[in-house]
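Blinded run. Sample ID left blank on purpose so nobody reads anything into the name before looking at the predicted structure. Input follows.
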Amino acid sequence: TIGLPLVFGWRTSRLNELATEADYTLHSAGMFCSNGGYPFIFESDDFPDDCEARCTSMPTCMYFTAYLEHGWCQLSSRCIEEAPAGDRS
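Blinded prediction complete.
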């Protein structure tokens, strides 16, 4: 089961669901949310703008990694553990 981490509070899940008042901030650069091997919510060949839009449209998405050099997108509900990315993501 994938859900929103409680560390963000109950209000965050509602804001994410409504896609209002939600702004993304840079969490890290050159890294991706590895989360100890837990699966991603979604992966695709989207570029950054499409990756952000896809994350916004999914209520369980809290983080996205956009690989800039090859156009790859990973969506995550949490980002507790990170690892180096294959490019300058």
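Unblinding after everyone has recorded impressions. The first strand starts at residue 31 and ends at 33.
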